[in-house]
Every structure is written in C-alpha cells, then in structure tokens.
Write a structure and sequence with these properties.
heterodimer, A: 198 residues, alpha+beta, Ubiquitin-like (UB roll), DNA polymerase, domain 1, five-stranded mixed sheet, 28% helix, B: 751 residues, Aldehyde Oxidoreductase, domain 4, seven-stranded mixed sheet, 20 helices, 24 strands, globular
C-alpha cells in the first residue's frame, strides 16, 4: 500500500524573514511507504486522513512522517518530557506513547491546528508577545498543555499554571516567560482554546 | 532537473537561476540552489576578505547575508540582522539569512564561547559598512554627485535635499557583485546614532517556532529518505562479541543492519520500524569495568593527574598561608553533567557515490566536513555540511556525532538517512561536562583583606571537539575501535580559575586529568561555573570567618569601575543588607523554613561580561530541600544589541544554572552511564523555578559588545551555596545540592 506524504507548503511568516532556508530542505515528494500493514483513518486538525501504519505505531511518528505535522516533537519516547503533546478529544496526551490505533475516531489537534504565523492562536500570540522561546523545541508541548489548561480553567492562578506545566520539561530555562505567556493569554481570554476540533 | 547532489555544479550555475527558484517549487536539491534572492550572485568561494562572500543584494532590493555563526536558540540570527540592518541602513525585514553552510558561508569559526555577537557581529558590521561605502560610491557615479551629498535610509540612496534623485540598493547593484575586498576603512556608525541596534526587536524565528513551521534538523525530509537508529555498546571500549543480523531480518521495513567495527546501526523504511529494529537486534558486547566507583571519582582524578600548570601567581601564597593566624581550607566538588537537550540529537545525510550532503545542528559546519569526509573515505571537497537548527545546544553535545552516524548509514544503504538518537543514546553518549575537584586555602589578614589565596583544581578536558580524525566522533571511534583525542582547548578548564580580584599572595594551579573513561567536552561556560562555584563560595567562607560583609570583602579587591558598578547595582536592586557576623546555625532539623540570601560576582572569562547575582533561598532543615525564591542579576556586556534577547539569555542562564546546581549529576556504574532518562537525570521543573528573576542591564554603548550566552550561569552556583549558608550556617560544597547533601551539611555544621 502506498501512502502519499502531503507536504504543507511552507509560507513565509509575517516578516518574511524565512525566505531563504526552511522550505528548501523540506521534501515535497511522494514518499513510498511499503510494509505498512494497516489502513487507518484518523481525524487531525479537523480533516480526515487515511494513514497506513502498524497499529502500535506511536501517533507521533504518524503525525510527523505521514502528515508532515512537525509541531509535535520527539523528546524522549517515554512520556517524560511533553515535547510530543497533542490534544486527543480536547485532552493533552503524549503522542510518543499513544498508539495510532487508539485514536481512530477521535479528534486530534496539533500545534498546527491551533494557528499559523499569520493567524496565531491567542496562546501562540502570547508566546510571541512574551518572546517565550529560546530553541523552541519544547514549545509545542508547552502551548498544547497550556491550551488544554485554559480550556478547562480560563483564569488559572499562577500556582495552577505552574502545577499544570510541571510535567513538561524545558532545558533553555524559558520557564519564566512561558508562565508569563500563559498568564497573558488567560488575561486576554482564549476564544478557541483547542483549535479546530472538526 | 537532476536529483543528484549538485556539488559538482558551480556556485555560479546554481545561483544564476536562484531568483526563479526562490518562488518556484522543485525537488531536492533546491537547498543547494535557492540561496539568495533576486538573482544575486554570491562569491565563488566564500572568503572572509571578499565582500561578496558576506552579503549580496538582489534586484528585488533584498539583502541576503551569509553568516558562519548560527542560530542555536539564543537569538543571534536576530541580533546579527540588527547589526547589518543598522550599518547598511536597510529594513530588517528585507534581510534574508543563510547560516552555517560549509559551501556557501564564510567560516567564522565555530558558534561557541558567547562569541557570535562579539566576534561574528564585528565581522558582519565591517562587511555591512564596506557594502554601504560601495553603494555610496556607485550612487555618486550614477547620480553624478559627490558621496558627501548622499544620504542612505531604508535601502535607498538619495541626494540630500532632493528626494527625487534616488536609487534603491537593488537598482544600484541588484544581482551584481561588489568585487571588493573588505578594507576595514569605511567608517562604522557612531553608536549614538543607532536606531536598530539597542532595540528589543522580536526574534525573527519565534512565530514559526510557536506554530510548528520552523524547520529543525529533526524536520528535514528528503525524497527517498529512510530512517536509521544506532545500536550503541554499553560504552566506548566495549567489544562486539557477536551480532545476529537475522534477529531483525523478519521485522517489517528493515533495510539493513550496518556494522563497521563496533559501530552498529539499523536502517528501515519507517521511523518506528528503525526504532523497533534497534531494540530487537541481538548484539552481545563485552564490557570491562573501567569506570571508578562513583565514591572514588575525585580520588581517581588526583591519581590520574600527573602534571600541573600554574595559571597565575602573585607574591608568595604558601608563605602567606603559613604565617596566617586563621587559615581557611575547603574542598569543593562538581559532578559530570549533561547538555541534556530536550530533543535527542538528529541529522540527515545524503551520501552518494560522488559526494555527500549532511544536515546537522553542529556548532561548526565547516569544521565537521573533514572528519565526515575521512569517515566516508571521500575528499573534503565532496562533502557539504548544512547547519539546520536543532534542539537547544549549550555546547558540544551529540550534534556532530549523530551527523557521522547518519553519514555512515546513508553510505551503507545508498539513500538519504535520517538518524535521531533515542533518549538513552543522548543521555549515555553525548559528551559530558566534566566533573571537577577543588582544594582551596586562604586567609584574611589583620587589615581585613585577603592575605593568602591558593587554588588547586583537577579536571578532565573541557574541549574535545572533532578534529580531522574521524575517531573524534563516536561513530569513528567505534569503527576504529578506539577514540582519538578531540580538539583540546586548554583554556576551558581554566576559564575563571583565576578570579579578577587583586590578591597580593595568590597561587592558582590546575591539574589536568589527561584521559578519563567518560568522554567530556564543552558544556555551557566550560570551567567557569565550576571554578566560580569554588572561588565565590570560598571568598564567602573567608568573609564569614573574618566577620566581614561578603560584598565588602570583594569590593576591597576590585578597582575596575564596571565590576564595582554591577556589584553595587545588584546589591542595591536586591536591597542587600551588609552583614558581618556568621549566620545563626539552624540547630535542629526543624520543618521551620530558614530564609537566606547569597551573593556572587564573576567577570566571565576574566575579560568578558560582568555579572553580579543575589539569590534568595528557602531551606527546610528537616528535609534538606532548597528552593530558590528570587534572583537578582546585574549584567554588563558592553553595548547591548537586543535588550529583550539579552534578558531571555540571562533568564535562561539563571534557570539552567539553578537546575545544574540543585539537581544535576550523571550517574554511572563501573561500565556505563546509568541515568539514561529524565528520571535518572532530573532537571528543574516549573514547580522549582524562582518566583522572580529581576534583572538590571547596564548598557555601555561606548564599549564593544561581549557575549551573554554563558556569563550569567557562572555566579549562580556559589550564590545559591552562599544563600544556604546564610539561611542555615551550613556550607554545601558539593554540587548538586540534593536534600541528602544539605541535610549532611546541616549535621556537619552543628559540631
């Protein structure tokens, strides 16, 4: 069975400063994926996708390698760091330890489903406004986890934010700004906390 | 279009049609082509002397900069743009950026040592000033006016007082070459006139990073790309007794088990298949116990070190110590630590018969070419390394090593291969920041100044970066069966070994540990955080023993006004209350929280940024738990290019330093690193961060910019130790300050 990798065309963000590099190195070809054994339909960011993978394949690899959704990141593969966090039916889940077969029929939202550089989700906007990133590798997990928090608790205390984020790791030491960004988003109200649920 | 790598094509060829390719979509190797905007031609071979190597201007008025210094997550790709925008009078948004490409960018040296703005920025400023002068001369010719009558703003040269006579940079030179060497003669702007440098410009890549659009090396996908994983022995030096390739032959998607010497890797069609095969492959290793018992680690350093080097000496420290009435002695210990990037190291390699392209988060794309070429048996001109940002760097982590892994696996299967290390690979195989041992002695004389100061430190190397020898990379080591010494950097372990205090009788001696079975290299700050932990703890001990306020004792040995300024700024901002008496000891193992405040000061690398830190801690004597509540830092790194970027760096240094000080140590047994995930090597969590990090930035427009990527880490460990002492009267002299160690120190302080 063949699966087509649909590469999202990279568009330059507002300042158009990425004109030079990133999309130069993103493959856009049709990638042959032999040996995949099972056809599955998963609903991601409001759209259905037919994917083929062994049932126990981590959802993370399917999102990244078949759907080219690079927001979720591989950090540990152990469910310890949170870099791979996505929403499954609105709840933050670690896609590195979630089998793809377990999410059929459920609504999956990734960082890309929240917003774009041109139309960022209020939390993404807040992370930009607070410049709450250094390397940014953990930020997917930070935003996804915070979005789930704000969906259930629109006006969390600082303690509640810290408590909710405690399961996610950042190595650059951007914690102070991440907390501020979540506070900012909460103060501004988050209209659509979990993005397009489809 | 051919899909073979285009290293055989000339730069002129692939750049000639760049203007089309920027807007077009094509298959690989677009990366090799769409590298400048508006049909501009880049220099034939990047040389630091040639202006065309640094920047080109397209017909579309866009400026494409070719920077050897790379974005490691610290924001330099924004700060360096600011420097170019300022000097060239071009809007920041119009600058496109190419970084760290061994075939396209000037080799500015590795992106290390907080040098990107200081050294890299200075080079770019000179290049932009040269371009500015060239554009003025071109405009003078075309507009038929002297240069002195021309003005430049927003990418336009115009005649002063006659706005109708104007030419854009693109109209002046778009698509053409400057053909000019960088003379250094054109004047650079007076900082008083700066409009872009010095402003908190938002980082250019953050919108893409928070929306999943930023392309990390982990996100690179090439047509036909397959996935590799490495199968590591327990440690370097282990021998491969047997490997059963058939053990994974029936697993789906497996393309090849690759073995070269003791290098073993698997390649599979899909990532999860490679992960499964790497776990399943039946390899037996013989690992002899070579690591010392953790309890004997520091003693082993002393027995392994056979030479010593006097880093600095004044007067006669030994005699001064002998004649001191109340000498103070203390031993400090620092453990092995990890860079511990959140994303395990990753690289993509496309190795063909006639050349190789490697996408890597390396700190030195140019420097990685020769060892990769040697590993592949190719000449260096056939290998191209393209920097692509990775997870946070913090020094020499696994980025270079995984590039070699990917290159070997790609060569073996003849297809592009992406390799990402597992979490265990990362924790067990990245080069570690060295453990260090310190023995300090000193005394305060009757005049209330430090009469004697001796420092002896033992350390493995802080620099083991790849050389031309591929055995400096893990894959090369495993292929060859033995490691080669990496690029030694003698200054690493000695960074801030000697303080900047003026001391009349001082002897600072380093004792290098020439080889140690754990591979060590550069971790943020190199020896500076460790050395400063020892020095700044010890001066606090001297102050306490002599009954002198610790800030006052430091001030008595400093005359540099910038040093005094950061110290006074931090003390004032934090509301420091001078104290002469030693703190009241906590007495009982009470649950009553004890509050304390500590101070430390470091001038990074003795000639770079000045940093003073005041730290407030809570200590619970019964549990030994330490919580850093508030941190106040005053920081002077000369001219500030981007104040918010600087704040972000200082905050990051502070938080990471708290983590390293309170929590981090590599665990190992006699054969291997055993702490191979986030439970075995815990780092600071949100519930452990300070409530506030209060910064005072001292801008010095009249002083050159120095780096800020590492400096603020250095005073933190001692400031925390000094705060614990202030809170409890107990001195913690071994990092990390775990609850057990703090409780032990509390018990020791009672006798």
């Amino acid at each position: 069975m063949l699966a087509r990798t649909t590469e999202l065309v990279h568009t330059c963000h507002a300042s158009s400063m990425t004109a030079v590099t990133p999309d130069d190195i993103r493959g856009e070809a049709t990638v042959l994926m032999p040996y995949a054994s099972t056809a599955l339909r998963i609903r991601v960011n409001g759209a259905d996708h037919d994917v083929s993978a062994e049932p126990d394949t981590p959802l993370l690899f399917v999102l990244r390698n078949e759907l080219s959704l690079n927001g979720p990141k591989f950090g540990c593969g152990l469910g310890q760091c949170g870099a791979c966090t996505v929403h499954i039916d609105g709840a933050p889940r670690r896609s590195c330890v979630t089998a793809v077969s377990a999410v059929a029929g459920k609504a999956i939202v990734t960082l890309e489903g929240l917003g774009t550089p041109e139309r960022p989700h209020p939390l993404q906007r807040a992370f930009i406004d607070e410049q709450a990133a250094q390397c940014g590798y953990c930020i997917n997990g930070m935003i996804m986890r915070a979005a789930a928090l704000l969906a259930s608790t629109p006006r969390p205390s600082r303690d509640a934010i810290v408590s909710a984020m405690d399961a996610n790791l950042c190595r650059c030491g951007t914690h102070m700004r991440i907390v501020r960004a979540i506070e900012r988003a909460a103060a501004g109200g988050v209209a659509s906390p979990t993005g397009r649920e489809g | 279009m051919s899909t073979s790598p285009s290293f055989s094509r000339s730069r002129r060829e692939f750049l000639a049609d760049a203007g089309i390719l920027v807007v077009g979509f094509s298959l690989f190797p677009r990366a090799l082509r769409a590298r400048s905007s508006g049909g501009a031609e880049h220099a034939a071979a990047p040389s630091a002397d040639a202006l065309d190597s640094w920047l080109v201007i397209g017909r579309d008025d866009r400026v494409t900069v070719y920077a050897g210094k790379v974005e490691l997550g610290t924001g330099v790709s924004t700060s360096l743009r600011q420097i170019v925008a300022e000097e060239l009078d071009v809007p920041l948004e119009r600058i496109a950026w190419v970084q760290g490409d061994s075939q396209l960018t000037v080799d500015q040296g590795r992106t290390v040592g907080s040098g990107s703005v200081k050294r890299g920025g200075a080079q770019l400023r000179r290049a932009a000033a040269e371009a500015r002068q060239a554009l003025l001369e071109l405009a003078a010719e075309q507009l038929n006016v002297p240069v002195s009558r021309l003005e430049m703003a927003d990418g336009v040269v115009s005649v002063a007082g006659d706005a109708s006579r104007r030419l854009t940079y693109g109209a002046l030179i778009g698509g053409g070459r400057f053909e000019r060497t960088i003379s250094g003669r054109p004047p650079v702007k007076d900082p008083a006139a700066y409009r872009v440098v010095g402003r908190p410009i938002p980082r250019v890549e953050i919108p893409a990073k928070v929306t999943g659009k930023h392309v990390y090396v982990h996100d690179v996908r090439l047509p036909g790309m397959v996935h590799g994983r490495v199968v590591r022995p327990p440690r370097v030096g282990a021998t491969l007794e047997s490997i059963d390739e058939q053990s994974v032959a029936t697993l789906p998607g497996v393309i090849r088990v690759v073995r070269k010497g003791t290098f073993v890797g698997v390649v599979a069609e899909r990532e999860e298949q490679a992960v499964r095969a790497a776990k399943a492959v039946n390899a037996k290793w013989a690992a002899t116990p070579v690591l010392p018992d953790a309890a004997d680690l520091y003693a082993s350093f002393k027995s392994l070190a056979t030479t010593e080097r006097v880093v600095g000496a004044t007067g006669d420290a030994a005699a001064a110590l002998r004649s001191a009435s109340r000498p103070v002695r203390a031993t400090y210990r620092w453990p092995f630590q990890l860079h511990a990037s959140i994303g395990p190291s990753c690289a993509v390699a496309d190795v063909r018969g006639d050349g190789a392209t490697v996408y890597s988060a390396t700190q030195g794309a140019h420097q990685l070419v020769t060892p990769i070429a040697a590993l592949l048996g190719m000449s260096s001109d056939k290998v191209r390394v393209v920097f692509t940002e990775g997870s946070g760097c913090y020094g020499h982590n696994g980025a270079d090593d995984v590039a070699a892994d990917a290159a070997l696996l790609s060569q073996a299967v003849g297809r592009p291969v992406r390799v990402q290390w597992s979490r265990e690979d990362e924790h067990a195989w990245e080069p570690e920041g060295p453990a260090m041992l310190f023995e300090m002695a000193g005394a305060v004389g009757g005049d209330g100044t430090i009469a004697a100061w001796t420092y002896d430190a033992w350390t493995p190397t802080h620099g083991a970066r790849p050389t031309r020898d591929p055995a400096t990379l893990v894959a090369g080591t495993l292929v060859a069966g033995k490691a080669a010494a990496g690029e030694f950097f003698s200054g690493g372990g000695e960074r801030n070994a000697r303080t900047t205090y003026s001391l009349p009788n001082e002897r600072v001696t380093s004792h290098p540990v020439p080889s140690f079975p754990i591979r060590t290299s550069s971790l943020r700050g190199l020896g500076s955080p460790q050395n400063s932990f020892a020095n700044e703890s010890f001066i606090d001990e001297l102050a306490s023993a002599a009954g002198i306020d610790p800030i006052e004792l430091r001030r008595r040995h400093l005359s540099d006004p910038r040093a005094l300024a950061v110290i006074d700024a931090a003390a004032k901002r934090a509301g420091w209350t001078p104290r002469a008496k030693a703190p009241v000891r906590s007495g009982s193992a009470s649950a009553q929280i004890r509050k304390g405040r500590g101070f430390a000061y470091v001038q990074y690398d003795r000639t770079e940024a000045y940093v003073a830190a005041v730290v407030d801690v809570d200590v619970r004597p019964d549990t030994g738990s330490v919580r850093v509540r508030r941190v106040c830092v005053a920081h002077d790194c000369g001219l500030i290019v981007n104040p918010d970027g600087l704040r972000n760096q200082i905050e990051g240094n502070v938080v990471q330093a708290i983590s390293r000080t309170l929590k981090e140590a590599v665990r190992f047994d006699s054969t291997r690193v055993t702490g191979v995930d986030w439970t075995g090597y815990p780092i600071l969590r949100f519930s452990e961060i300070p409530e506030a990090i209060d910064l005072e930035l001292i801008d010095r427009p009249d002083q050159p910019s120095v780096g800020a990527g590492e400096a603020a880490t250095s005073p933190m460990p001692a400031a925390i130790a000094n705060a614990i002492f202030d809170a409890t009267g107990a001195r913690v002299r071994q990092v990390p300050f775990t609850a057990d160690r703090v409780r032990a120190a509390l018990r020791a302080s009672k006798v």
